[in-house]
C-alpha cells in the first residue's frame, strides 16, 4: 500500500474540521520529529494570583500598609503572625532571661504559612488560624478568598523567611522589607504593644530595646532573603503599578 505523505494528511485533517481555530491557506508541513503541537489558536493564559510579601522589623508599619492597600485596591491579606506556635509548644526558642523569644523565626510555622499561600494562589480560598497574642495561642480560624487575578498580601514579622520558597514556586510578585528610623519604630511598637496589652509592660520595654539594637541586622537578613528595604510610602507607590486597570 502506498503511504500518504504527512503533509497531505495534515491538510486533510484541517479540511475535515478535526483541528479547531482559523484555517490557514496553506498549512506548513509537519516534521515527524516535532513534539505534539498545541492548537494553532491556543487560548490566552488565564490571569493568575501572585503574592506580595510585606516584611520588616516589628512595629515598622507592615499592618498599616496592608490595610491601606486593601482599602485602595481590595486585595486580600494573609496575616502571617497568625502562624505563631502556641505558647506551650516545646519547640519554642527561649532567651537567656528565661522568656520565649517570639522574635526568632523558630517561634513560627513557616511551612504552614507557605502551604496556606500556595492553597490560596491555587484555589482562591484558604482556611487560616487566628492567633491571640495575649493568650499566646490560636483561638479560631478564618477563611481568606482571592479573585482569579488578585494580588495577595502576606504580611508579618517573619514574612521574609518564606520569600525564597515563594519565588521558587513562581508565586512571588514583590517582596518588601518595610522600615523607618529604628527609634521611631521603637516608640511606635511600644505604644502599640502597650495599648493592645500584648505582654507585661516590663517585658515589652526590654524586648523593645533588644529589637532596636538588633534592627540593622534584621533588615540586612531580610534583604539577603530577597526583600527590598524601603519606606511604606515607597512600597505603596511601587505596588500601585500592579493594580488592575492601572
UniProtKB/TrEMBL annotation:
It holds the Pfam family AAA_33. InterPro entries: P-loop_NTPase (IPR027417). The keyword Amino-acid biosynthesis does not apply. Residues 18-46 are annotated as: Disordered. Keywords: Kinase, Transferase. Residues 28-46 have a biased composition (Low complexity). GO terms for molecular function: kinase activity. This is Uridine kinase. It comes from Oryzihumus leptocrescens.
Amino acid at each position: 500500500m502506498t503511504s500518504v505523505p504527512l503533509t497531505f494528511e495534515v491538510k486533510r485533517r484541517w479540511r475535515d474540521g478535526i483541528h479547531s481555530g482559523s484555517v490557514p491557506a496553506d498549512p506548513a508541513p509537519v516534521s515527524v520529529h516535532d513534539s505534539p503541537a498545541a492548537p494553532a489558536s491556543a487560548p490566552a493564559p488565564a490571569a493568575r494570583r501572585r503574592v506580595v510579601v510585606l516584611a520588616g522589623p516589628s512595629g515598622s508599619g507592615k499592618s498599616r500598609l496592608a490595610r491601606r492597600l486593601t482599602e485602595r485596591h481590595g486585595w486580600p491579606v494573609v496575616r502571617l503572625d497568625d502562624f505563631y506556635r502556641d505558647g506551650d509548644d516545646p519547640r519554642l526558642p527561649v532567651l537567656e532571661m528565661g522568656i520565649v523569644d517570639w522574635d526568632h523565626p523558630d517561634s513560627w510555622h513557616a511551612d504552614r504559612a507557605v502551604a496556606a499561600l500556595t492553597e490560596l494562589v491555587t484555589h482562591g480560598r484558604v482556611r487560616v488560624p487566628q492567633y491571640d497574642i495575649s493568650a499566646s495561642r490560636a483561638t479560631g480560624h478564618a477563611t481568606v478568598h482571592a479573585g482569579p487575578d488578585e494580588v495577595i498580601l502576606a504580611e508579618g514579622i517573619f514574612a521574609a523567611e518564606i520569600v525564597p520558597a515563594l519565588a521558587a514556586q513562581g508565586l512571588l510578585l514583590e517582596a518588601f522589607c518595610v522600615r523607618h528610623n529604628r527609634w521611631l519604630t521603637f516608640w511606635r511598637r511600644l505604644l502599640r504593644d502597650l495599648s493592645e496589652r500584648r505582654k507585661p509592660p516590663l517585658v515589652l520595654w526590654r524586648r523593645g530595646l533588644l529589637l532596636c539594637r538588633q534592627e540593622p541586622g534584621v533588615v540586612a537578613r531580610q534583604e539577603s532573603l530577597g526583600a527590598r528595604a524601603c519606606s511604606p510610602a515607597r512600597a505603596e507607590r511601587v505596588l500601585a503599578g500592579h493594580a488592575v486597570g492601572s
